[in-house]
């Protein structure tokens, strides 16, 4: 007879014996009650030493209804524990067909299956991202500085989430990437100096609390095509750091403190195709001068 055909394994036998002991203890220390059909219940006590009756004139008797209920509950629990103590290691042994001990059969198939699942998950993740060649960038770890998005395959005007800027990140090399900076009271853009000049296509700094000089960290990103500074706390001095951004095509300055002093810096961005200046301090006269300097640019004022 094979192991899988045995009636009870060691754990099941132990549970069964424990259940028998519990039921025997219940029988030896039963619940008591006053004698009679309507007798009040009394505490548990050994069969050989009953408790004092509530009414000595009526006497005591065993409350069989309570006793049978408790024995039934104990029996059901014992049966459930026996069933739960299944012989899964023995079933694995039958499937494997090997003559090794049950301990080795438990560990090896389970470990191999887990490894296969993890590998499949990694492959699926790479397929979903579909970003092609990447380069590893070691961003500061422990604090999410922003989010990286890649251009959607089916819609060039949409972006799909790619990764948080926190610790090592594999940056795509052959897809446009957008960086959305976290909207916090204080933003340190120093980590941007870790990136290669053509790493980013777009950067979103909307509503960020910034000092003008912090935008000097963008000066090395010559591949930038879009910058959104809507609602950022910057003035005209911030734009003096854009001299190297010769490929910039779209710039949003809505709701910032830039004024007419920014005209000279903006006029150097010869590849601008869109410039949004809503709710800024730039006068109409300055805008007209910019229109002349950036004849290919579409203005939104």
Question: What are the salient characteristics of this protein?
Answer:
301 residues; Leucine-rich repeat, LRR (right-handed beta-alpha superhelix); 2 domains; eight-stranded mixed β-sheet; 31% helix; disordered N terminus
Blueprint (SSEs and pairs):
Elements: H1 10-28, E1 31-34, E2 41-44, E3 60-62, H2 64-84, H3 88-96, H4 102-129, E4 134-138, E5 146-151, E6 159-164, E7 168-172, E8 177-181, E9 202-204, E10 226-228, E11 250-252, H5 263-267, E12 274-276, H6 284-293, E13 298-300
Parallel strand pairs: 8-9, 9-10, 10-11, 11-12, 12-13
Antiparallel strand pairs: 1-2, 1-3, 4-7, 5-6, 5-8
Structure characterization notes:
This protein is an alpha/beta fold. The protein has 2 domains: 3-86, no CATH class; 130-300, Leucine-rich repeat, LRR (right-handed beta-alpha superhelix) (Alpha-Beta Horseshoe). Helices cover 31% and strands 18% of the residues. The chain has helices at 10-28, 64-84, 88-96, 102-129, 263-267, 284-293; strands at residues 31-34, 41-44, 60-62, 134-138, 146-151, 159-164, 168-172, 177-181, 202-204, 226-228, 250-252, 274-276, 298-300. The strands form 3 sheets. Strands 6-5-8-9-10-11-12-13 form an 8-stranded mixed sheet, with no helix packed on it. The chain has a 3-stranded antiparallel sheet with strand order 2-1-3, with helices on one face. Helix 1 packs antiparallel against helix 2 and helix 3 (88-96) packs across helix 4 (102-129). It is rod-shaped and about 115 Å long.
């Amino acid at each position: 007879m094979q192991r899988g055909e045995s009636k009870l394994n060691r754990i099941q036998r132990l549970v069964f014996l424990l259940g028998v002991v519990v039921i025997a203890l219940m029988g030896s220390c039963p619940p008591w009650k006053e004698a009679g059909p309507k007798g009040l219940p009394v505490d548990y006590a050994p069969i050989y030493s009953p408790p004092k009756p509530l009414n000595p004139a009526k006497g005591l008797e065993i409350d069989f209804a309570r006793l049978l209920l408790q024995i039934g509950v104990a029996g059901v629990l014992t049966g459930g524990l026996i069933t739960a103590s299944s012989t899964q290691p023995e079933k694995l042994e039958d499937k494997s067909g090997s003559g090794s001990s049950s301990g080795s059969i438990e560990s090896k198939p389970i470990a191999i299956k887990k490894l296969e699942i993890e590998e499949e998950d990694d492959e699926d993740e790479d397929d979903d991202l579909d970003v092609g060649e990447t380069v590893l960038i070691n961003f500061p770890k422990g604090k999410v500085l922003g989010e990286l998005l890649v251009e959607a395959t089916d819609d060039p005007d949409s972006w799909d989430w790619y990764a948080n800027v926190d610790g090592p990140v594999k940056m795509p090399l052959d897809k446009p990437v957008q960086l959305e900076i976290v909207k916090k009271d204080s933003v340190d853009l120093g980590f941007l100096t870790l990136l290669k000049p053509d790493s980013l296509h777009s950067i979103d700094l909307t509503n960020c609390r910034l000092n003008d000089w912090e935008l000097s960290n963008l000066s090395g990103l010559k591949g930038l095509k879009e910058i959104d500074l809507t609602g950022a706390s910057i003035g005209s001095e911030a734009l003096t750091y854009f001299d190297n951004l010769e490929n910039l095509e779209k710039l949003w300055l809505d709701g910032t403190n830039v004024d007419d002093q920014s005209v000279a810096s903006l006029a150097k961005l010869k590849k601008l195709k869109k410039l949004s200046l809503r709710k800024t301090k730039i006068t109409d006269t300055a805008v007209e001068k910019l229109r002349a300097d950036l004849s290919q640019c579409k203005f939104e004022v």
